[in-house]
Specification:
The longest helix is centred in the middle third of the chain and has 37 residues. The relative contact order is 0.07. Strand 4 and strand 5 form a beta hairpin. A 5-stranded antiparallel beta sheet has the order 2-1-5-4-3, with helices on both faces. The protein has a 5-stranded antiparallel beta sheet with strand order 7-6-10-9-8, with helices on both faces. It folds into 4 domains: 129 residues, Beta-Lactamase (2-Layer Sandwich), CATH 3.30.450; 115 residues, PAS domain (Beta-Lactamase), CATH 3.30.450.20; 66 residues, Helix Hairpins; 145 residues, Histidine kinase-like ATPase, C-terminal domain (Heat Shock Protein 90, 2-Layer Sandwich), CATH 3.30.565.10. By secondary structure, the protein is an alpha+beta fold. Helix 11 packs antiparallel against helix 12, helix 13 crosses helix 14 and helix 14 runs antiparallel to helix 17. Helices cover 45% and strands 24% of the residues.
């Protein structure tokens, strides 16, 4: 006889099978599909299908946790964004055609359908977004509009543009202080500027009209370069900052930064490839020496500083009986500055390890909620004048280096306090987004300009306004970014000048076998 428990398990299994079928159906759809959680702050994406990843060029872990607006990049003045915002606030469905940008920066037109999902109480808990790439249709509509123009005027204008472009391109090639090549569709050199000829010790006669890979007795027959031109460039135009290292027979080893563009004209100039070659050999060597210096200097400073710290602590524990209040206060200040110097040296050592690939990651399962809570409590005790408000919970287990993740949280909250001198509050929010944990640190301080946002996670980068007002080396965010990346997560920032900043990062939740 079948028991109620058997019926329950059969029902549960049926639900799991149905869910699996639904997910497979969504992943097989040609349209991009996402689901956002309206119950969480900023309505983050908690699910996306394979088509959405294909259309946008982003990977799954780069999508989960973001608001859909990240696809508009800096193009945020579109009226369709206001329409979407109003519909989401009112819990209504809507359809818009909006400009989006893929991960590689290319524009695509998105036909977006947004529908709300309500619970039994009629509350909107989620939104489902279905998107279709209508770039070809938009292009066709634009072509039809152009065809209404006078054919004769179009030909004259286009001919003049070609003449101007050819003259302009030729002028650039021969005056810029960077090696430049123009190739035809078969990779035969059409033009080479003077800087290229001088740098690589070749003549104009031996270069123009020759297949690139046969130049200089095949010295440009470089596998990485072939991959760039034959495999990457046709599918990903343009190629930006592609690093190639090669040992040339006559001039030695060169480290080059290549930028390649496929220029699509009409007529006899159709399909041209422009290659800009920057010689970064000296810069790479300088960076290597700088990294070596930082590593050696940090290690050499660490030992005597540890001794100094121990002596200061000994004096603090065993002060002379006749020690004055000024003596004790001064000793405390020395201890504080020794700790600051010790933290700075530790960051420099971390940077050196990251650059050399020697940073150690001790992966162990840990409860992320407790790690965040402990870090917030420690910082609250250290900065009693700031109110650090922690909200949300995940009950998730992360497989990673708990100390490193704690370091990331510490860096983000410390920065939020440091760069919000007029504020008294920092918000920390933690939540589940799909198979990831999302942690956000929100401050109400200076904010970051769009120009600085692009470089904020680079090593030693500091915004100009910050350089004048706040001390530091600009390596904390670089270290945090690399730690999160090593844990298969992403770290990003949303900010406006004068309106504060929100630094968020995601970490994959550890899968537990049932």
């Amino acid at each position: 006889m079948e028991t109620s428990n058997d019926a329950y398990h059969r029902s549960d299994s049926k639900l799991e099978n149905n869910l699996d079928i639904y997910l497979k159906a969504l992943n097989s759809a040609n349209s991009g599909i996402i689901i956002t959680d309206n119950t969480q702050p900023d309505n983050p994406i908690i699910y996306c299908n394979k088509a959405f990843e294909t259309i946008t060029g982003y990977e799954h872990n780069e999508i989960i946790g973001h608001n859909c607006r990240f696809l508009q990049s800096q193009d945020r003045s579109q009226p369709e964004r206001s329409i979407l915002k109003a519909c989401i606030e009112e819990g209504k469905e809507c359809r818009v055609e909006i400009r989006n940008y893929r991960k590689n920066g290319t524009l695509f037109w998105n036909e977006l359908y947004v529908s709300p999902v309500q619970n039994d109480k009629g509350e909107v808990t989620h939104f489902i977004g279905v998107q279709n790439d209508i770039t070809d249709r938009k292009r066709a509509e634009n072509d039809l509009r152009e065809e209404k123009l006078s054919v004769e005027k179009k030909i004259q204008t286009r001919t003049q543009e070609l003449i101007d472009n050819q003259a302009f391109l030729s002028s650039i090639i021969h005056t810029v202080r960077e090696s430049l090549l123009v190739l035809d569709a078969n990779y035969v050199v059409i033009s080479a500027n003077t800087h290229f000829l001088n740098t690589f010790k070749v003549s104009q006669e031996d270069t123009v009209g020759t297949l690139l890979f046969e130049l200089g007795n095949h010295q440009w027959d470089i596998e990485a370069l072939k991959e760039l031109l034959i495999k990457i460039l046709p599918t990903n135009n343009p190629v930006i900052d592609f690093e190639v290292e090669h040992d040339f027979p006559h001039i030695g080893k060169k480290v080059m930064l290549l930028n390649a563009y496929r220029v699509e004209f009409e007529g006899q100039y159709k399909d041209r490839i422009l290659i800009a070659i920057e010689d970064i050999t000296d810069k790479t060597e300088i960076d290597r020496r700088k990294d070596d210096f930082l590593s050696i200097a940090s290690h050499e400073l660490k030992t005597p500083l540890t001794t100094i710290k121990g002596l200061v602590q000994l004096l603090q524990r065993m002060p002379p009986e006749s020690a004055s209040e000024k003596y004790l206060t001064t000793l405390d200040k020395v201890g504080t500055y020794v700790d600051r110097l010790n933290n700075l040296i530790t960051e420099l050592l971390d940077t050196s390890k990251i650059r050399s690939g020697n940073i150690e990651v001790h992966n162990e399962p840990f409860a992320i909620d407790k790690t965040i809570r402990d870090t917030v409590e420690s910082l609250s005790l250290a900065t009693p004048n700031y109110n650090i408000v922690l909200s949300g919970a995940t009950e998730a287990v992360i497989l990673g280096d708990e100390l490193q993740i704690s370091q990331v949280i510490n860096n983000l909250i410390s920065n939020a306090i440091k760069y919000s001198p007029g504020a008294e509050k920092v918000d920390v929010h933690v939540s589940r987004v799909g198979d990831f944990v999302k942690v956000s640190v929100i401050d109400y301080g200076m904010g970051i300009s769009p120009q600085d946002k692009k470089k904020i996670f680079e090593r030693f980068f500091r915004a100009r306004d910050i350089q004048k007002k706040f001390p530091g080396l600009g390596i904390g965010l670089y270290i945090s970014h690399e730690i999160v990346a090593n844990h298969k997560g992403t770290l990003w920032v949303e900010s406006e000048i004068g309106k504060g900043s929100t630094f968020s990062f995601t970490l994959p939740i550890m899968k537990v076998d049932k």
